[in-house]
Amino acid sequence: MTRVVIKTENMSFAYPDGTPALQNINMEILEGERAAIIGSNGAGKSTLFSHFNGILRPTSGLIKIDGEPASYKKDDLIKIRQKVGMVFQNPDDQLFSPTVEEDVAFGPMNLGLPDEEVEKRVEESLEAVGMMGSERKAPHHLSGGQKKRVAIAGILAMKPDIMVLDEPTTGLDPHGVEQVMDILYDLNLKKNMSIIISSHDVEMVTEFATKIFVLHGGEIIHQGTPEDIFNDPKTIKRAQLKQPTAAALLHRLKTNGMSVGVKLTVEEAYHEILHGMGEDAYHNLLHMVKDQCHHKLLHALGEEKYHQMLHILEEEKKNKSS
Ligand SMILES: Nc1ncnc2c1ncn2[C@@H]1O[C@H](COP(=O)(O)OP(=O)(O)O)[C@@H](O)[C@H]1O
Ligand SMILES: [Mg+2]
């Protein structure tokens, strides 16, 4: 059976000033899963993420990491943070060493690993994020996308089982988004790493996530596959989010009588629309053949060929609808 790596049970949290930021959160993340928490600003995403590696402690309820209720003793917290690697939304909160190399080495050095092992991990991590050659650069001289990748490398160097990334693509240009998402796919597919991201970018999340949680006002108001989530426009609206553009377009075409299903990505929508158009064109042709061009076709083809053609069209129609 697939291992549950993170599980929360009726987890609630209020900030010291009394702000109730999370209410009765029940969620399960499985090993190797790509999960996304989606929600608008202030929904509680960052607060929830701070619970995944013990930065914040639930006011009530609990969180289990690998089946063990989180313990907030110093030594236990170190273990949790090794297991659950957290990439903050703003890389400037994470990068503080004078060079990229020192930054990525910081975590493994703190674990007391031998120099050789630290060096190996720095090299491997920078390679995994495509930042070799920047070892001696100052992090604050890098672009937003590069900083993000170095921050990811710093976490990878700790060899976590689970990576948690708070809004990993916010503020990046399309190329930067693609690079970061490619790294996350790679870690998930090649190393079976469980990955949890938060975002309000429904397009990206639709492509990436195998499981989505909709967070609104500190509560999880829906969870399921991307199809489950985005075929429920009411909940999406309540969460102050949007449907992916492809889904909204197909929904509209469907409402206006075109025979299409609602798909979430541009690629799927493209095929759905082509198929829908093909079907419409076919039915138009059939209609025309039977009603309008009857005499012309009979004359041009002769009676036998004309009936053969009608027969083929009918058979095709049957095959398509079966
Ligand atoms: N340090 C804090 N003290 C008090 N309230 C906070 C603090 N940080 C966040 N909040 C409040 O908690 C709620 C959730 O915030 P946050 O987790 O940052 O949401 P998100 O990451 O989804 O934008 C908001 O109402 C926010 O104002
Ligand atoms: Mg946030």
UniProtKB/TrEMBL annotation:
Keyword Nucleotide-binding: yes
Main location: membrane
UniProtKB keywords: ATP-binding, Cell membrane, Membrane, Nucleotide-binding, Translocase, Transport
One of the GO BP terms on file: cobalt ion transport
GO molecular function, one term: ATP binding
Superkingdom field: Archaea
Membrane topology: Peripheral membrane protein
Presence of keyword Translocase: yes
PROSITE patterns given in the database record: ABC_TRANSPORTER_1, ABC_TRANSPORTER_2
Domain ABC transporter: 6-242
GO CC entries: ATP-binding cassette (ABC) transporter complex
Subcellular compartments: Cell membrane
SMART domains assigned to the protein according to its UniProt record, in alphabetical order: AAA (SM00382)
Any Pfam family: ABC_tran
Similarity-based family: Belongs to the ABC transporter superfamily.
Function: Part of an ABC transporter complex. Responsible for energy coupling to the transport system. Probably part of an ABC transporter complex. Responsible for energy coupling to the transport system.
Protein name, UniProt field: ABC transporter ATP-binding protein
Species lineage: Archaea, Methanobacteriati, Methanobacteriota, Methanomada group, Methanobacteria
